Amino acid sequence: MNTWNYHPSRNIGVPIATRLRGFPREPGMLAYALRSLAALLLRAWMRVFHRLRIEGRENLPATGSCILVCNHTSHLDTLCLLSAVALRKIHHCFPAAAADYFFTSLPRSAISAVLINALPFDREAGGEQSLDVCAELLREDANILILFPEGTRTTTGAIGRFRSGIGRLAAGKDLDVLPCHLEGGLQAWPKGRLLPRPRRLRLRIGAAKNFRHLDTSRESVRAVCDELQRCVIDLGGDRQ
Predict the structure, then answer these.
(1) Rounded to whole angstroms, how far apart are CA atoms 76 and 201?
(2) Which phi and psi (to 5°) does residue 3 adopt?
(3) Model pLDDT for residues 197-212, shown as the tens digit of each residue
(4) From CA 20, how far away is CA 14, in angstroms rounded?
(5) d(CA 98, CA 130)
(6) Side-chain half-sphere exposure of 177, counting CA atoms within 13 A
(7) pTM, whole model, 2 decimals?
(8) Which of 79, 108, 119 is closest to 203 using CA atoms?
């Protein structure tokens, strides 16, 4: 006779706000169902309201974990990148979101954790602990991490200097990093505006980059950041 063992969730007795801010999260069928429904509604909204066009979907890897990096113009950036990912992978797609903004209240935490599947990223003290969580996530198979290496939304449209986090995650690792560029986000939902406008959006996904040939020195980390920044700028057709 087989022995049946019951292992209760580690989150039992933990306040819901704390559970939502925690990572990794305990999987739940209700969260999966709500996230799947939200993904379908999101894609319909993006297609109709923003006439979103996505180029380069074929560059997304069929297997293995990867990182998507993109310029940061508005809250629409994350939603566009989520719309580009196959529905069957939506529960393995994790946008890094600033913990001091998206996880400061129960409603924001619920939307970020349940509907968006966001990974709380602590921007304080260089985000060391959060980078460790990201690295562990990428060691598992078929996870997608969404990062905005500028660290904050632009107010001018210019692409700012990429911070070192992406370089530390990618340098010396056999990991695909896909540069992306979103056009129209600043016009559709600029920083400080309460609701988005019905403006056209275009997301370009570039060819994957791999930096396994580099060491993990500070110079290599900076080289990764600079190359990815150039790739994102080139995808947008900008010259900075």
Answers:
(1) 9
(2) -85, 130
(3) 999 999 999 999 999 9
(4) 10
(5) 10
(6) 27
(7) 0.90
(8) 79
The tokens for 149 are 């290496």
Q: What is the 3-state secondary structure (H, E, C) of 185-215?
A: HHHHCCCCCCCCCCCCCEEEECCCEECCCCC
Residues 141 and 198: beta-carbon distance below 8 Å = no
Average pLDDT over all residues of the chain: 90
User: Could you give the CA distance from residue 144 to residue 84 in angstroms, rounded to a whole number?
Assistant: 12
Separation CA 153–CA 98 (nearest Å): 11
Cβ-contact 225, 217 below 8 angstroms: no
In 3D space, the residue among 180, 104, 114, 111 whose CA is nearest the CA of residue 145 turns out to be 180
